[in-house]
Design a protein that fits this description.
The chain is mainly α. It is built from 8 helices and no strands.
Length: about 210
């Protein structure tokens, strides 16, 4: 039981902590709109990570072996990141043209729901997340996991990923107290550039699959 819980915790940290598109978007939204905005998006990512952990533990890793399935995930993910990157740059341009008092401080509930759905979709269509759960994890495990350990592993993944989201967004909230107008513009511009970079990489790595 303890070993299964530890495995779930390590897998959760391994999935949540690396800087990728989701963490970039959490940074951007938390600095701009506060803790709730970043936390909502992070919860969407946690939902997918726990789902993928369950599927991996059930031995459904063969999904990533289908070239058509992975290609579809890669292309949709790249399109989504391109959209988010462009929207981030549009927000950066708007922020540069407006006063700090005109910035939206606390997001409405509809924005929080949208943030959760964005985190859900971003993580689901993230090729690196798919490879982590369906390729790297089974390869590292080396053997099928006992069905009795599945709930414990999933609990560990949930605790680790949610703890990371809370810690990450809380730290950003603390840093947010020193924010300035140029921070908002820089966060949108830098975040948008990184998202477009991730999208470009996804498109580039998918090209050989069509040749």
């Amino acid at each position: 039981m303890v070993q299964a819980l530890l495995k779930g915790l390590l897998l959760g940290i391994g999935a949540a902590a690396p800087i990728g598109p989701v963490n970039v978007e959490i940074i951007r939204r938390t600095l701009k709109h506060g803790f709730r905005a970043g936390f909502a998006l992070g919860c969407g990512a946690v939902t997918v990570d726990v789902t993928y952990a369950l599927l991996t533990s059930l031995g459904v890793s063969h999904l990533a072996e289908h070239a058509g399935f992975y290609r579809l995930i890669q292309i949709i993910g790249a399109i989504l990141l391109t959209y988010l990157g462009v929207m981030s740059w549009i927000d950066a341009i708007r922020a540069a043209r407006t006063s700090a008092s005109a910035q939206l401080d606390e997001p409405p509930r509809s924005t929080l729901r949208g943030g959760y759905l964005t985190g859900l979709v971003m993580t689901f269509f993230n090729p690196m997340t798919l490879l982590f759960w369906f390729t790297a994890v089974p390869a590292a495990s080396g053997s099928a996991q006992s069905r009795s350990d599945l709930p414990i592993i999933c609990i560990g993944v949930f605790v680790a990923t949610l703890t990371w989201v809370i810690f990450f967004t809380s730290t950003l909230k603390w840093l947010r107290r020193w924010r300035r107008q140029w921070w908002m513009t820089a966060a949108d511009a830098l975040g948008g550039s990184m998202l477009l970079g991730f999208a470009g990489y996804a498109f580039w790595t998918s090209i050989p699959r069509f040749l």
